[in-house]
Write a structure and sequence with these properties.
alpha/beta, Transcription Regulator spoIIAA, two-stranded antiparallel ribbon, 8 strands
Amino acid sequence: MSAGLTALRNVWRQATQIGDGLQNGPPVLATSDNGLDAAQINAAASRYTCGMKLRHQTEPGSVWVWLSGDLDAGQCGCLRAYWDRHIDTGAGCLDIDLTDLDDLDGQSVAVMVDIVRNALDGGARVAVHRAPQMLAHTFYKIGLLSQPQFELIDPRQDEPYG
């Protein structure tokens, strides 16, 4: 493993801010307490391809979040860090657009369910747009579809592998 990738993985665990990876390439990390400056971190990040991209937009009373790419167990920590740093779930309305999310695994489903539950517990109205079939089915199985503050909009029916 290269020194740059090792440094990035170490920094990734300590990151205090994750930048917009959707518009400007891979996520950009910025941190002040790991001994590396932003240039070193961004150089390492540019050599590492992250399968998940995140973007958000905050407006008075609402937050929109877009996820794209692949979300798997390796990116769950990244997703949580981004969420904790940038997303105000007390904004009133939270819209999560998963139209461009290609794939997610079981741990990612658990993290998404946890994020939605926390937002609902905080009093937000949550709408999830174009959720993959596995996530939509999990929302159904745990009873979220009966919550008046939760809305599942146009869930996808994934194609079988083969």
